[in-house]
C-alpha cells in the first residue's frame, strides 16, 4: 500500500510544497515574526526531512523532538494555538494551490495537525 508520501508525489512534491509553504508563511503577518531570525535554508531542509518522515517516506528521523524545537518560541515569543492553526492553514492552502486532492489534503491535515503534534509544539 502506498504511503501518504508516495501519494503526494514523493521527494519532489514534498520539496516543492515546503518551498511554497514557506513563501506563504513568510508573508503571513500572523506568524512570520517567528521566522525573523531563522536560517530559512536550514529550516526548509529540516521541514522536508520531518514531513518525509511524518508522511511515511522514511522510518528514520534525526531531528529534534517537537517540544525541544519549539520550546523557545513558546516561552520567549508567545507561540500559541492560533499560531499553530495559522501554520496548518498555510500548509493546506499551499497544497490546494498545488492541486492536491481534497482527500489527500485531509490525510495531510490529520498528520500535520494531529492533537498530539499540537500539544508537543505548544509544550502542553
From TrEMBL:
Superkingdom of the organism of origin: Bacteria
Pfam families: Bac_globin (PF01152)
Recorded GO MF terms: heme binding; metal ion binding; oxygen binding; oxygen carrier activity
Entry similarity comment: Belongs to the truncated hemoglobin family. Group I subfamily.
Keyword Zinc: no
Signal sequence, renumbered to the chain: none
Keyword Heme: yes
Protein name: Group 1 truncated hemoglobin
Organism from which the protein derives: Acaryochloris marina (strain MBIC 11017)
Cofactor names: heme
Transmembrane residue ranges: none
Sites where the protein binds heme: 46, 70, 117
Keyword set, alphabetical order: Heme, Iron, Metal-binding, Oxygen transport, Transport
Cofactor note: Binds 1 heme group per subunit.
Amino acid at each position: 500500500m502506498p504511503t501518504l508520501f508516495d501519494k503526494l508525489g514523493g521527494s519532489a512534491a514534498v520539496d516543492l510544497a515546503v518551498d511554497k509553504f514557506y513563501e506563504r508563511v513568510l508573508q503571513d503577518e500572523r506568524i512570520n515574526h517567528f521566522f525573523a531570525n531563522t536560517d530559512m535554508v536550514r529550516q526548509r531542509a529540516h521541514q522536508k526531512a520531518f514531513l518525509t518522515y511524518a508522511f511515511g517516506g522514511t522510518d528514520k528521523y534525526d531531528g529534534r523532538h517537537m517540544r525541544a524545537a519549539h520550546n523557545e518560541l513558546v516561552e520567549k515569543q508567545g507561540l500559541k494555538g492560533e499560531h499553530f492553526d495559522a501554520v496548518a492553514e498555510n500548509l493546506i492552502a499551499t497544497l490546494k494551490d498545488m492541486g492536491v486532492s481534497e482527500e489527500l489534503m485531509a490525510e495531510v491535515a490529520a498528520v500535520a495537525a494531529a492533537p498530539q503534534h499540537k500539544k508537543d509544539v505548544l509544550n502542553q
